[in-house]
Specification:
The protein is an alpha+beta fold. It has helices spanning 35-45, 77-86; strands at residues 2-6, 15-21, 24-29, 48-49, 52-57, 63-68, 72-73, 88-89, 98-100, 110-112. Helices cover 18% and strands 36% of the residues. It starts with a strand and ends in a 5-residue tail after the last strand.
């Protein structure tokens, strides 16, 4: 089977072309670094997914990149995306700040990936 996915190991967001059979990875292309292959392998075999998104800042047109500290259940990804669309945080913000302790009732923290003054 073949699919495309966006790697969420870093903010680069490479588009991966993944070939797999069952939960066994056959090949990955499009990754800008070695972490892309590991990401694809996890995505096809795990019931959890890495989550990387961005949220709006109060009083700014700039977006804040955010990430969960750990993978979240795949069935929570749509809910997490919807949450981030409507969530706003005030400036200033520092990289590593915890924005939500129990993100979408997953027990995982949502953290800021950038400092903005």
């Amino acid at each position: 089977m073949e699919t495309k996915m966006t790697c969420m190991n870093c903010r680069r967001g490479c588009t991966l072309e993944v070939s797999y059979e069952g939960n066994r990875l056959i090949s990955v292309t499009g990754n800008g670094c070695g972490r892309g292959k590991a990401f694809a392998e996890r995505e096809i075999s795990e019931t959890k997914a890495s989550f990387l998104s961005e949220i709006r800042l109060i009083g700014s047109k700039e977006f804040l990149p955010v990430k969960t500290e750990k993978a979240i259940p795949k069935e929570k990804v749509s809910e997490a995306e919807a949450f981030c669309k409507g969530f706003r945080v005030p400036i200033p913000i520092r990289i590593g700040d915890v924005l939500v302790n129990d993100f979408c009732q997953t027990g995982v923290r949502l953290i800021a990936l950038k400092s903005i003054r």
